[in-house]
Write a structure and sequence with these properties.
This protein is α/β, with parallel strands linked by helices. It is built from ten helices and eleven strands. It folds into two domains: 37 residues, no CATH class; 198 residues, 3-Layer(aba) Sandwich (Rossmann fold).
């Protein structure tokens, strides 16, 4: 019975994705291919769900099939979504660098964007991923690293084993960004996957403070655009 329901669900999803002007992971486009709205359900489709669930749903919309992770406290809200839903296969690694290189190998062998999920609230966890990020950028491999971090209010207090995650990864990525509001999460994730593959492919680092992934999405339709200046304040709300 479960297998039958799963098959029906896959068929239904396939039919929906083939509907006019809707492309999986891209959203609604005009007849000439112009992107009109990058989220198929719009921001309101995520209202009142937790940030971790928003990220998970955006991974699905961007056609992510597998992720490579090393779990930790601050990234738990996203890990829980992977554990409770089998649409994305997660591979548990024994080290952050292993997760990064596994994602890079996956990207090279499949042509998809490689995705790694780690925790950065333990400073050395993020630093262990530096080599993988550098490899992806230098060799034009599309790679997105999501790192869980402590709450925004704690990031500036030199908390236990905390490191300046985005500042460290700025020189070796195409874009390194710390999310500061749950409402910008859909646009951040979409931009990460777009920019990882745009022009010369490379590495993207998205830092996810725990206060963001545990907060509830309340976006009233605002859109966000990014200028890739690599700072925590490089986002502008678009009404």
């Amino acid at each position: 019975m479960v297998n039958s329901l799963s098959t029906i669900s896959r068929i239904a999803s396939s039919m929906i994705s083939k509907s006019k002007n809707i492309l999986p992971g891209s959203g609604i486009r005009s007849s000439d291919g112009t992107l009109l709205y990058p989220m198929k359900n719009g921001p309101r489709g995520y209202n009142n769900i937790l940030g971790g669930n928003v990220v998970y749903n955006k991974l699905i919309e961007n056609e992510v099939k597998e992720v490579f992770l090393y779990t930790g406290g601050s990234v738990t809200p996203l890990i829980e979504e992977l554990y409770s839903d089998e649409r994305i296969k997660y591979n548990m690694n024994s080290h952050e660098l292993s997760a990064g290189y596994a994602a890079i190998a996956y990207a090279k062998s499949t042509g998809r964007v490689g995705v790694s999920i780690i925790t950065a609230d333990s400073g050395h966890g993020l630093i262990n991923s530096i080599t993988a990020l550098t490899n992806a950028t230098n060799n034009n491999i599309p790679f997105v690293l999501f790192s869980g971090n402590v709450a925004l209010s704690t990031i500036i207090t030199n908390a236990f084993r905390k490191c300046s995650a985005t500042e460290i990864t700025q020189p070796i990525t195409k874009w390194s960004y710390c999310v500061k509001s749950v409402d910008e999460l859909p646009d951040v994730v979409d931009e990460a996957f777009r920019f990882a593959q745009d022009g010369n492919p490379g590495a993207i680092h998205i830092d996810l403070p725990k206060c963001v992934t545990t907060d509830r999405f309340k976006n009233n339709g605002r859109r966000f655009r990014f200028d890739h200046k690599y700072t925590i304040d490089d986002v502008t709300a678009v009404d």
